[in-house]
Amino acid sequence: METKHLDINDLANVVTLIDGAAKQGMFSGDQLAVIGVMRQKFVAELKEQAPVEDNVSNISDADEESKVEASSE
Predict the structure, then answer these.
(1) Burial 63-72 (b: 16+ CB within 10 A, else e)
(2) CB-hemisphere CA count at 13 Å for 66?
(3) Domains contained in the chain, number
(4) Which is nearest to 46 in space by CA: 4, 11, 17?
(5) Highest mean pLDDT among 14-18, 47-51, 63-67
(6) Which is higher by pLDDT, 67 or 55?
(7) Is 36 part of any domain?
C-alpha cells in the first residue's frame, strides 16, 4: 500500500470549504467545536509548510475579520 500525502493546496482547499460551509450555516452547533479544532490544525500546518510569499501567514487575519462580520449579521 502506498502512503499518500496532502499538499498545502489540499489543506487550503479544506479550510476554504469549512469557511464556506460555516458561513452558509451547514454545521449544527454541536459540530462547530470539532470542526473549529480541525480547521485550526489545518491552518497551523499551512502556516508551517507554506513559503512566505504564499500569504498563508495572513489566513488567521482573514479568519478574524470573517468572525467579526458573522457576529455583526
Answers:
(1) eeeeeeeeee
(2) 14
(3) 1
(4) 11
(5) 14-18
(6) 55
(7) yes
- Residue located via cell numbers 502512503: 3
Answer yes or no: is 1 within a domain.
no
pLDDT tens profile 22-48? 999 999 989 999 999 999 999 999 888
Helices (H), 1-73: 8-23, 29-49, 59-72
Q: Which domain holds residue 59?
A: 8-72
2 is a domain residue? no
Report residue 30 as a C-alpha cell. 454541536
Q: What value, to the nearest 5°, has the Cα angle with vertex 9 and ends 37 and 6? A: 70
Which single residue is written with the C-alpha cell 452547533? Answer: 29
In the chain, the amino acid numbered 17 is L
Task: Provide the phi-psi class of 21: left if phi over 0, else alpha when psi is between -120 and 50, else beta.
Answer: alpha
